[in-house]
Each structure stands twice: as C-alpha cells, then as structure tokens.
Amino acid sequence: MKHFLNTADWSRPELQAMIDEARRLKTSPYGDVLKGKTVALLFLNNSLRTRTSFDVGAQQLGGHAVVLSPSGGMWPLEFEDGVVMDGDAEEHVKEAAKVLSRYCDMIGIRAFPKFVDWEEDRKDKILNAFAQYADVPVINMETITHPCQEMAHVMALQERLGPLDGKKFVLTWTYHPKPLNTAVANSALMIAAKFGMDVTLLCPQSEYLLDMRYMSQAEQDAKANGRHVHVTHDIDEAYKGADVVYAKSWGALPFFGKWEEEKPIRDQYRHFIVDEEKMAKTNNALVSHCLPMRRNVKMTDGVFDSTNCIAYDEAENRLHVQKAIMKALVSS
Amino acid sequence: MKHFLNTADWSRPELQAMIDEARRLKTSPYGDVLKGKTVALLFLNNSLRTRTSFDVGAQQLGGHAVVLSPSGGMWPLEFEDGVVMDGDAEEHVKEAAKVLSRYCDMIGIRAFPKFVDWEEDRKDKILNAFAQYADVPVINMETITHPCQEMAHVMALQERLGPLDGKKFVLTWTYHPKPLNTAVANSALMIAAKFGMDVTLLCPQSEYLLDMRYMSQAEQDAKANGRHVHVTHDIDEAYKGADVVYAKSWGALPFFGKWEEEKPIRDQYRHFIVDEEKMAKTNNALVSHCLPMRRNVKMTDGVFDSTNCIAYDEAENRLHVQKAIMKALVSS
Amino acid sequence: MKHFLNTADWSRPELQAMIDEARRLKTSPYGDVLKGKTVALLFLNNSLRTRTSFDVGAQQLGGHAVVLSPSGGMWPLEFEDGVVMDGDAEEHVKEAAKVLSRYCDMIGIRAFPKFVDWEEDRKDKILNAFAQYADVPVINMETITHPCQEMAHVMALQERLGPLDGKKFVLTWTYHPKPLNTAVANSALMIAAKFGMDVTLLCPQSEYLLDMRYMSQAEQDAKANGRHVHVTHDIDEAYKGADVVYAKSWGALPFFGKWEEEKPIRDQYRHFIVDEEKMAKTNNALVSHCLPMRRNVKMTDGVFDSTNCIAYDEAENRLHVQKAIMKALVSS
C-alpha cells in the first residue's frame, strides 16, 4: 500500500505514468475501478476545486466520496502519542484514521498550516499522522505542499509544450494583501525540477526563499536531470527567455507568525504582478496560477485572459490527475 | 444552451411541457438522462427542500449532485469586471463559473438579497454572473425570484383544478416578525399571470407593492391572456370568490435597509393572517405557501391542515419539476 | 411501518436477526435493497463515524444518503402543537418531517440533549416529533439513547464471545473534563440486560445513577432473562470476574444544567480510568468504548491498544448493523 503525500516519494516515470493515464481519462472519463469503494475527503480548510473535482472524479470511476469537515464531520483531534487527553481534543487522530479505514478505501486530507510557527507547521503533522495510522491510502489534498496541483500543472504544460526537458520555468512571487501558504510554491519548484526544466525562482528579497527542504529537493532533482535551480530578485533576468511563468504569492518564512512585521516589506513589491510588459520579455511563455487568484493584483486581466494562460486547463486537469492517482493507489 | 433563471425567459408552452414531464416523472421517477453527469449546487443561504429535492432528483435521473456552500465549498467572490482585487474577495466569479463548468454539467445557485440596498440586490448579480460566465446551464434555486417554486405551484394547482385560465388567484401579503425576501411573491405574481389567471395582489398599503419589473411582467402576461392584475388593500374584496389563495410575507421595498422604520407599519397588519373566516369568503379556494411557514402567524393551523391546502403537494412537486427542468436543460 | 428509535421497542429475537444479517453483510457487503432510495441524515450535532457509516452503508446497498445539518440544511424548528410561531422558529417540525417524507425513504436523526433541563431533554422531543409526523421510517442516530451503538457493541461481543448469556458486563463511569450525554450509558445498560448478561453499573456515587426509565427497563429485561442489574461504587467489586468492561463518562443528572456544582465532585474521580491494574482483576475481559475517547483520561493507552479492546471492531460494526437496520425498516 502506498500513499500520495508528496511527489518526492514517487519517481518521475511513476508520475508520468499517472499523467499519461490522466490524459486517457480526459478523453474517456468513465470507469468502474472504484466500484463499491468510498473515498473520505477531510477538509480542515475551504475548498472549491479540490472538493468538487475529487467528488466528481470518484463518481466517474464508479465510486463515492464522503466529504467531512470540522463543522459537522470531525471532532477536535489530538496528534501526540501517549498524551493525557484532558485538553480540547476529544479524539486521537489514531482512532479517526483507524475507524475511517474501516469504512472507506482511501482518505484525502486538506490541512493548511496554522501560520503561527513554521517549525511546527513544517512537520505536516495531520497529514503524516493519517499516513501513519490509516490502513488505506492517504492523499494530500494540500497541506504544506500541493502535489495534486503539481500533477495538473505538468499535465497542462505537456499538453501545450510536449516534453518539458530544458524549458525555462519561472516561479514568480507576486504581491497579495495577505501572507499565504507556501504549499503551491514548494510544489511548483519541486515538480518543475523533477520534470527536467531549468528552474528560476524569482522573489523580491532573500526572506522570500522557500523552506530549504523543498529548495534542496528541487536542486537535487534538477542536478539529476543535468539542470539548475537559479534564484534571482531581478525581474528582467527572470522573465527573459522564459517558456513558463507560474505565479504565486506566499508569506516570508522568517516573519512566520509575526506577519505585521512582514507587511511593510511585502507592500513594497506590488510591481511583481505578472503583466503584459513582463510577458513580452519571455519566449512567448505559457502562464498559469493555481486559483483562486486575485485579478489585477497577482496577474493582469490581459495576461490571465490571453491564450497563453493555461490556468483553466490546469484546474480542469485536477479532475483527471486525481482520478489517475486514485486509480494508482487503489491498485497498489 | 439555455439557463433556467426566470420563467419570464420561457414561453408558456415550454413551461407547460416541463410541468407535463414532471407529472410523468411523478409516476415514473427513475431515468438515466443524467447518467455520468454532475450538478453543482451552490448554496449561499440555508435550504432544506431545495437541497434535498435537487440532490434526490439528480440521483433518480442517474446523476450526481455536489453541494457547495460558503462554509466549506466557496471562497469570497468578486463580481465586477476589471477590478483590482485587493479587498476581501479571493476569487472572481468568472473563475468559479468557468472551473465548475469544467467539472460539472449544470450549476444551481441560491443567493438571497443582502437586504441593505434594493437597487443593488435587484441586479441579481451572483446569478447573472454565473449565467454569463458558465459554459453549462445555470438554474436559479432562489435569488430575487424563485422560478422552481413557481413551477411546483402551478403543477399542484393543475393537479387539483385542471386548466387555470380565468381562475381568481389571490397573492396575499401576511405578517411575519421579520422582513423577508420578495422572491416568492415576485414569482407567484408572474406565474399566475402567465398561466392565464386573474391576479389579485392583496397587501396592507402601497409600500408593499412589488418591484415594478415584476408587476409589469405580470400585467403584460395577464393582458396577453385577456386577464388582469388587480391590486387591493381590501381583504374582503380580495378573498371574495377566490379560487386560489397564496400566502407570503415580504418586506416593503421603500424601507429596504431601513427595516426598523418599517417595523411599526408591519406590526399593524397581523390580521392579514389567512384564517377560516377569510377562507369562507372564497370559492372554496385552494390555499398554499412555499414553506417554511410560521403557523398561526401567516396561516392558522385550521386552514393549513385542511384538505384545501396544497402546500405539501407543492413542496413534493419541487422534486418533480426540478427533474423536468434539469432534463430540459441537459438536452437543450 | 416501524421506526428504529430504541431497542426497547424491538424483541431480542428481532434484534438478533438484524445482528445476524449484519454479520452476513460484513462478509458480503453489497446489495440493491435501497436501489433508487434515499436516506435523509439530519445532524443537529457533530459526527464522524455515524455520518460516514450511514452514508457508506446506504451506498453499498444501492441507495443514497442526503446529509442535512443546521448550518446549511435546516431552518430553526418549532416542536409544540398549536403554537403561534412568532419566536425564532421558522418551520414546524411537522412540515420538515412531512416534506422530507415526500423526498426520502428513511430519515435518520441525531439530536443531543441541550444540557440545561433534564426533564425537558428526557422527552426526546425532536426524535419523537419526527417519528410522529414522518411518513417514512425514522432512525435514532443518537439522542438520549444510541441504539445503533448498542447493536454494534453486541455484535462485536458475539464475534469474540459467542452467546452472551450469563456473562458479567460492567458499565463503568469514567472521568472526562466535561459532563457528557448519558445516551451511550443508557443504551449499554439496556442492551446488556436484554441480551442476557449480568449487569454491573459502576459509578462514583449515587448521583451518577442513570435515569430511572433506563434503569427500570434494564432491570425488567435482566429479570426476564433470570439475571440481575447490580449497582456499585466499589471498583474492585465491579471489575472482579468481569467478562466485559464498557467505559463511558456522563454528567450526573441531579446537577443537570448546574454543571459548575458537579465539577468538584467529578474532579475527585479521575481514578475511575480503565487501566491495566483494574483489568487484571477481570476474567480476561473484553473492553470497549463508543469513540471518540480521550486516551489516558478514560482508558490508558495500554488497555486501549491491547488485543482485549474491541473498540475498532465495534466502530466498524456500526456500518454493518446500520445496513441491517435500514434493510429491516425498508421491508417493514
């Protein structure tokens, strides 16, 4: 039995096989590989795309999704071993995972960071606890990484570009009024490196570098592919000759939990918006964002609504890759 | 592709064909016209009947419903074009509509007015934005009109009365401790006129007239059928000879957003309750209400529990007409 | 038509037949007895196991569950007959029950006590109102008793012990930082007596006795089986020779609604925890808890994680017995 927690746990050929299967499912969506099977979807945070696409995907493969959320479907959970549970938690994650495993054939988890202490959040405790205790495969529906989004993104790129090796991939930080989760940024960095692209991380200053765990993973994968991960704060240099521009905002890790201190820094960088002028410097690059996206803050209407933007395809591909992932896990 | 936003967009024969189909589905409920298809149901407000009947209806036609709500299934939405999204909204309705269209085959929307500014609420922005941007049919599950309720009501009337032309239909305002949405009142007025009835709108004083858009639509439809829309504040005159009494409470539009000023006016009219004494003046009229209904405030137990009351049939018919509507849209 | 409100309404052979059917369904889970049918699940309180197991169970029998909750699926309800509904309630339970009966084939209700006035809570008004007004079978998904849990527990005991007659069953109160519902305790007492066990109720002092309605029912059933219900405050006496230990915490009824007065009493009895030392006095007893359970507060990790603990089996059996119950009701 194998979980789908992070793409780093899977080889590039394994991931490519899932993407190939997703392309088959895109043209021929129905099947019965999940017939009689149920996927529990635990949402500890909001969701539109993930909730809908997993539910629809399970259904199209003959299965059924049960959506659970803390308002209604969950008791407050304890994650530590051996603890005397006389605080707020009514149930140990061990029981939640073991019991759901008796009812369901797969468990999806969405659990965003708490945004107070990155040392704590980076342990990804909820996801890892479910993976440890569940007797069925667990899928990461976004925690501190977002591997389903990665897969949908690569699928959308391959649909337009074919093989990705040697393409220049730019992950650009953009302004957003609030500090956001680094999950999609971490994921974009890793998957771009894994699939053989030359990766440029563009961010305003060094405080916006991502967690070393993900930087190192990307560097290691890039090296194995004979490519590089390059960090820059120079907008022109980053965009020049880019084949892919991926936009995302995130909070600076050194200010984690002290967000009021980060605000004046972040507020200087509204000009990191993806706009027509910057895109003109690229190699007619494809551009995308994971959605939801604040228009004219992260990307101009002009860029987003252009034919170079593959954000809707990427969003649609969530459905297809997640079906392929569920298929792979259920037969693993 | 056609949406089901308002009955005014459809001809009487088209609506009658859906009601006829609903009557067939009432005796033979199962089918596979939605096989492999998903309906997204977006509830921005509470629902018991609508949520259950759409979900059950989709299922009975071989399909599947995904229920989304702001607590869990939705990000705060932006509706304006070209805006710099640096406020509360995290996602533009365009993306929500486009992405849901990639996953689902139909989208139902419930979005009540905000009750602050009728000039704003009467634009019905959420429904219209989804209709504009979605690539799949959109169904109004109650916004500032409630066309599914209209259809269920006409179906229930036809089941008991046969053809409705020339019947006297009375829409009576009733007291309710809070100002309510005019949606069902607007809808009742329009559908009664469209189906050839002589319509009487009974309300306590002119401030309770409905929006001119709906008054005019009803007058125009009544005229086309050789009938009339008559407004009165005289209870006896309204009930006299009525064939149908439809009860509903609503807030007075001139006091929209200034509800504390309306309260002393509204409080004078508790005697607009539908009771046995008033019903005795009718032509043994059928009586109904869209539910939920405050007993002994809007209608006495005696009237509601009488055999003249068709409220449960009307509620049940929601299931049947909505199935007919989904069937019509999916094949349009 | 029969409801499943309390096991007291069903004979031991009837209940045994459902458990036997549940054991068949455990090995052969799929069927079509609910094909085309819908179960409405009304949750007025949180749920993980109940929500998931009913949803999965309906699906495995070919049916469909619609989950409704006050945040989204329900209007505030009125329960009294003949009342002028000018307070908070927007809908009478009569309409909710009648209308759901038009859409669905069964209705499950979870409605915990309000914890203010036991004389009021013990009327079990919500469940009884639905049972009174619904035109389809109603299932108790936990109110002031929890009959589905009882059935799952007996099934798990029989799987390990075979016939239960004459076994020593100990229901032990345990500490919990908050006063909890007596539902599972009431249920455990009754089902143990009904299935022929000698029942010992262990609680710290007489204020923790359960409602006389359930004490009497258990005594009457025990007597009919030639057995006894024995109350003790002596831990050693209770555990000695026990074949089954069932742990549960609950609030003392004489302090109902005055919980701050109960707290200093309850706080003296942390030592009622089920631990290895106490278990050593038993006849190698099976031990269980209905979940969620606070580890090392109600039961030590050592006991809970031992092979004598059947809590996960009991939780799993919820799925199987509920399917058997739905099957029995739909054909009744």
Automatic annotation (TrEMBL), chains A, B, C:
The record marks 90 as: Key residue in conferring substrate specificity for N-acetyl-L-ornithine versus N-succinyl-L-ornithine. Catalyzes the transfer of the carbamoyl group from carbamoyl phosphate to the delta-amino group of N(2)-acetyl-L-ornithine to produce N(2)-acetyl-L-citrulline. This is a step in an alternative arginine biosynthesis pathway. Reversibly catalyzes the transfer of the carbamoyl group from carbamoyl phosphate (CP) to the N(epsilon) atom of ornithine (ORN) to produce L-citrulline. Pathway: Amino-acid biosynthesis; L-arginine biosynthesis. This is N-acetylornithine carbamoyltransferase. Residues 2-159 form the Aspartate/ornithine carbamoyltransferase carbamoyl-P binding domain. N(2)-acetyl-L-ornithine binds at residues 142, 248, 291. Homotrimer. It comes from Hyphococcus aureus. The gene is argF'. It catalyses: N(2)-acetyl-L-ornithine + carbamoyl phosphate = N(2)-acetyl-L-citrulline + phosphate + H(+). Keywords: Amino-acid biosynthesis, Arginine biosynthesis, Cytoplasm, Transferase. Pfam families: OTCace (PF00185), OTCace_N (PF02729). GO terms for molecular function: N-acetylornithine carbamoyltransferase activity. Its EC number is 2.1.3.9. Belongs to the aspartate/ornithine carbamoyltransferase superfamily. AOTCase family. It comes from the Bacteria. Its main location: cytoplasm. It is found in: Cytoplasm.
